[in-house]
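Before a colleague's protein record goes any further, I have to sign it off. What it holds is a sequence and that sequence's fold in token form. My question to you is simply how this chain folds and whether the tokens agree. Thanks in advance; the entry in question is below:
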Amino acid sequence: MNDMNPDLIILAGTVHTMDGTPNGPAPQAVAVRDGHIQAVGTRHDAQSWGPAEVIDFGDAVLTPGLVDCHVHPVMGLDMTRGRDLSGITDLAAVRALLRAEAAATPAGEWVRGWGLDPNAFGSAPPHRELIDDVVAGRPAVIRLFDAHSALASTAALETAGITGPRHFDQAAEVVCDGRGNPTGLLLEAAALDLVLKHMPQETFQERKRRLGELFDSFSRAGLTGIHVMDCGEGTLELLAALENDLAGCGRGLPVRVRVSPWCMPGSGEADWRRLVEQVRTARGSRWEVAGIKLFVDGTVDNGTAWLFEPDSHGQSVAPFWPSPEEYNRAIRFFASQGIPTATHAIGDAGVAAVLAAFEDLPADLPRAPHRIEHLETVPDGLIQRFAGSGLIASMQPSHCTHYSRADQTDNWSRRLGKERADRGWRSADLRSAGVTLALGSDWPVAPFPPLPILADAQLRRRSGHPDEQPIVPGQALTARQALEGYTSHAAEAAGERTVSGSVTVGKRADFTVFDVDPLSTAPDELAQGHVLATVVNGLLQHCSVGVAG
């Protein structure tokens, strides 16, 4: 290797390449040139790689850069304004927090909360009367944790002019009581937008600042890439402006960003062509529009999933696209253009409908990765169909561990009943069937730090809570399978197997460095581990320790 001329040599105690090669002594050194991996070998090998900057992480563990395959960063900027109610399952505690938030909110501004767990309401449905008094009659919007629903106060409904039910092109709903009066519960995007558009917005500069801080937080947590499953108003402008600002400081975005704008019911071929053009042209140095996001249902917790049989409330039996044939037509259009798609499908009927849409496609279409997001409850037959479909599964382990319970007393399980709850989040079965399984957080629905998520995927309970019983424990992933979900399988989900996802010569020099070994550390201990550094394109983005040179 005397002809090598790397820019950078990184040394570590262990390098997990995640390239699928037979097990053997782990490498301890990586050479980087022009943002790509030039060599992988031992510390002894590195001595002959030529003069270069050297970063020595001692006995730390280096892996391919971690990629969160499902996040909503710009949407999350808006959702996470106000009081964080995450993890609160007692209604009295929720009301106390909202009372405090109202007292701290300046006059004339809306009271906001987010992350509300529907388990806080017990068996009673959410209603505006439960929050009107604690917000002192002011306009208020409380986002439920699923990001598909919100509870609006009476004053908020009045401001938006909502006095009764509305009709939408999608399966959205302004929930009303038996007399036609709005309860305050808003289900799905079109209904939420009726109120959200009246709320005061942050300035562009403030949103850009917060987005930069969020991306830095992603990097500190160990992420080098994210798959953004929306493209709300201002998203691309924010990404371009933030990247331009950082370039002026000699930096780039600390994470690679892949954006998938929504294709919604009521759209047509002219709209779809505009989305295709966006995929083919909208990009920066480390961000790009890279696919299309669609929905066939909503969520189990708010009764908008698509199930073969009704839930315990008689709900979750309707598709998100009132005409599923139109969804099929949209899929056929994007697949014929070679455009990757990701479809939100939570219920068993929703997953079956997506499988059927792809099974009906001609075999000679351009190759592109197509995904199903979430897959929360599926029977055996759909697992086998999935294995033969070529589709990629994308799941979020903390949806299971944070919002359901082993004794099935939670809202999700009660709605589904034992049989369907026992089919929940079948990650191990999908892997056993040979399905590619990408993992992520769905932030802000659940926290984004990947180490606790890797742990939860193995434990099937919340890491750090050994007193909790595992939820459908037979669906636990191995440590390697969990890490693959953030590395090699994440690359497959993006159609980037040849350029990322493993520490392999020629691939991007994106790495995450830990003080624990994600393949051998006990999961509860892993969740408490630390990210020492992240590297993107051969450049250090985050480093929490002094390193030898």
In short: The chain has 20 helices and 24 strands. The longest strand covers residues 36-41. The chain has a mean pLDDT of 96. The radius of gyration is 23 Å.
